[in-house]
Amino acid sequence: MFRQPKVEYKTTRQMLVMREAGLVLSRALDETVAAATVGVTTAELNEVFEGVLREEGATSNFLGYHGFPASICTSVNHEVVHGIPGRYVLQDGDIISIDGGAVVRGWHSDSARTVIVGSPRPEDVRLSDVTEEAMWRGIAALAPARFVGDIGTAIDDYVSSVPGPPLGILEDYVGHGIGTEMHQAPDVLNYRSTHRGPKVRPGLCLAIEPMLVQGGLETAVLADDWTVITTDGKRASQWEHSVAVHDGGIWVLSAPDGGASRLEPLGVTPAPLEG
After folding, report:
1. Which helix (H) or strand (E) holds 44?
2. Whole domain around residue 247: which residue ranges?
3. Residue 7 falls within a domain, yes or no?
4. Distance, CA of 99 to chain centre
5. How high is the pLDDT of residue 152?
6. What is the pLDDT of residue 3?
7. 274 lies in a domain?
8. CB–CB of 100/115 below 8 Å?
9. Considering 38, 55, 70, 234, which has the largest number of Cβ atoms within 10 A of its Cβ?
10. Does the pLDDT at position 274 exceed 90?
11. Over the stretch 43-89, which tens digit does the pLDDT of each residue have?
């Protein structure tokens, strides 16, 4: 008989520590995104991120994870996820997804943003904007959701409704539970599926992270055993937030306002965690 992997449900006190980790991560990403300018290397972005974590007394959950050699993933242009920071110098018009995490007193956060360097191409702005909005649609769907699978349905419905050239939703890489580890059950699909996933109930914490591409869905992993690229060379975008479900509603742990500015236009008012 098929059984769901065990889901770790958190107490309010535990989620409040995850909120601390999320706020540290938000600040670290703010400074890293601001540093993503023409002429900067992706290794220098990693240094900026690590500097904030040190100042805040937090640690990285990426560094050393299954041997990963950095504290952020920097995925440029046709790189989808898991790009390794290094000597690459950012060029005018590059699109880069910056994905990072922080740990505070054993509790994890995970978040990603897409940045366009220098002069943006309209098609790249559209790609990033649609990916970000898809993430928020998925987060908004979590508020009334009965099952985790409702998130993927909402993301899929939104992306397929956007006018213009179709964008693809990657299916090989999905969101996940988060808590005492960065990656936990359940998987959070970014597309419609007959698999509903576990029931949504207080204490559930998820990292919701759609990854969209301008071309086909086929990907490959480079020789570094980490960097995932589109095989057709088309560009990609990733956006991610960590979100908590609690007795009062939902709260975006890695957004300073809990997600209010983006969720309220979608009819969802996030409820602050109180302990």
Report:
1. helix 42-56
2. 12-266
3. no
4. 7
5. 98
6. 56
7. no
8. no
9. 70
10. no
11. 999 999 999 999 999 999 999 999 999 999 999 999 999 999 999 99
Q: Exposed, middle or buried by CB within 10 Å (0-12, 13-18, 19+), for 45?
A: buried
Residue type, 102: A
Nearest CA among 229, 210, 115 for reference residue 159: 210
Give long-range contacts, CB 8 A cutoff, 24+ apart: 23-26: 23/254, 23/256, 24/52, 24/53, 24/56, 24/58, 24/102, 24/104, 24/109, 25/58, 25/100, 25/101, 25/102, 25/109, 25/110, 25/111, 25/254, 26/111, 26/254, 26/255, 26/256
Query: Amino acid identity, residue 150?
Result: D
1, pLDDT greater than 50: no
Beta strand spans in 60-160 (E):
72-76, 79-81, 95-104, 107-116
Q: Is residue 3 part of a domain?
A: no
What digits encode the pLDDT tens for the residues 199-229? 999 999 999 999 999 999 999 999 999 999 9
For the chain, what is the total number of helices (H) and then of strands (E)?
A: 5, 14
Query: Does residue 273 lie within any of the structural domains?
Result: no
- What is the CATH number for 227? 3.90.230.10
Task: Report yes or no: 240 and 209 within 8 Å, Cβ to Cβ.
Answer: yes
Spatial separation of the C-alpha atoms in residues 45 and 36, rounded to whole Å: 7
The structural domain count of the chain equals: 1
- pTM for this prediction: 0.97
Give tens-digit pLDDT for 128-154.
999 999 999 999 999 999 999 999 999
* C-alpha span between 46 and 63 (Å, rounded): 10
